[in-house]
Amino acid sequence: MLETSAGLGQLIAILIMAAALGMDAFSLGIGIGMKGIRLLHVLKISALIGIFHILMPLLGMYAGQYMSSLLGQVADYVAGGLLILLGVHMVFGSFKSGEDRVIDHRSLLGMLLFALSVSVDSFSVGLSLGMFQSNLVFTVLAFGIIGGAMSVMGLLLGRRASRNLGDYGEALGGVILLAFGLAFIF
């Protein structure tokens, strides 16, 4: 029974982290959506974000597993520290002007750069998770599906919402990652 509750706890933690990482795509998607976006572009951008939210944590997890074998017990503190730094970065980044961060979404290069920019955080989280034992397939699929879904929601909401909601969404995602980082350390 204890093993089942621990597994359920890990499942919930991964889903919450996936949602926190998706906040970046959601909040920046609102900014792009406010500039005007066609539904076809919503699908293309969201699919790319989903793919990058799978690839980046996957790469991070493999690197994290390697680092864990090198660092041993210190790995928990390194992983927690990375999540704390990432969370703080997301919180402070939410206060930046949205115009400075939104790139042209109409070109293939623009879509790729946007998807990469909102997925880089997933690499860091994957690096942290790679230092622990987690279900690899479930984790990367959860990150990809939730990241893609949140970008769809952000892009569509951006077509009819105010810009301030996006800033709060990114800040909330940063606070969640910061809390998980502290939980890993303590």
Automatic annotation (TrEMBL):
Keyword tags: Cell membrane, Ion transport, Manganese, Membrane, Transmembrane, Transmembrane helix, Transport
Localization: Cell membrane
One Pfam family, short name: Mntp
Entry membrane topology: Multi-pass membrane protein
One CC-aspect GO term: plasma membrane
First and last residue of the signal peptide: none
Keyword Signal in annotation: no
Spans through the membrane: 12-33, 45-65, 77-95, 107-130, 136-156, 168-185
A GO term for molecular function: manganese ion transmembrane transporter activity
Top-rank taxon, per record: Bacteria
UniProt similarity note: Belongs to the MntP (TC 9.B.29) family.
PANTHER family: MANGANESE EFFLUX PUMP MNTP-RELATED (PTHR35529)
Entry function: Probably functions as a manganese efflux pump.
Protein's UniProt name: Putative manganese efflux pump MntP
Organism of provenance: Paenibacillus albilobatus
